[in-house]
Amino acid sequence: MANGKAEQKGLNLEQWHKNVIECLKQNKTLKTVEDYPREKKKIIGPAAFLELTAIQFSNDDNPGTDQLAATLEAEVRVIIGYRTKDAKRTIRLLAATIAHQLENERFGLTAQPARVGGCWPDEFDTELDQYEVWRIVFTQDVLLGDSSFDDSGVIPETLYVGYSPETGIPHEDDYQELT
Question: Which of 38, 36, 39 is nearest to 51 (CA)?
């Protein structure tokens, strides 16, 4: 649910990827912004690479609209060359700046604000030995799939309540208006 209301259209994961990439590109320090990079040997940096790492589902957050409540778990790897001047400090400052940029971002989509879980060095990818790499982890709660409600029809302006078994047209005068 976004803004406390069930939304008609569920989140489109393809659009989510595109919008997160566009958000990251707003950081003019970055020369390369992509998702799921294939080539890791010749990176033009500073760079940021997005990866959706998990989709967690929660039955406790069922919106009652036939949509699937999910938490997207994502990572952004921030990369600079190890020969960059003050590389250790520079990578930390850049990671912190991007983490701040991601925090509370909705990426122009119907979703809850992103929540950054943290950022830290990422030294496990041997293909990136020539780079300083930090990983930023964030999550975002979304609804997947379209709502079963289309909001068509007339929205009632006055509501009445009746008590069983005195319901229906024969008992119209027994109904009480809700205010």
Answer: 36
Q: How far apart are CA 160 and CA 91, in angstroms?
A: 63
More confident: 150 or 56 = 56
Give the torsion through C-alpha atoms of 135, 19, 97, 44, to 10 deg.
70
DSSP 156: P
Q: Tell me: pLDDT of 5 over 50.
A: no
Q: Which two tokens stand for residue 150?
A: 């289309």
Tell me how far the alpha carbon of residue 46 is from its chain's centroid: 24
* SS3 of residue 61 by DSSP: helix
Predicted structure pTM score: 0.77
CA distance 130 to 134: 13
Of 17, 133, 138, whose CA–CA distance to 77 is shortest? 133
Give mean pLDDT, residues 62-88.
88
DSSP code at position 165: T
pLDDT in tens, 104-160: 999 999 899 999 999 999 987 777 888 999 999 999 999 888 777 766 667 778 888
Tokens of 158: 């006055």
State the burial class of residue 63 (Cβ atoms within 10 Å of its Cβ: 0-12, 13-18, 19+).
middle
| CB-based contact 24:76 (threshold 8 Å) | yes
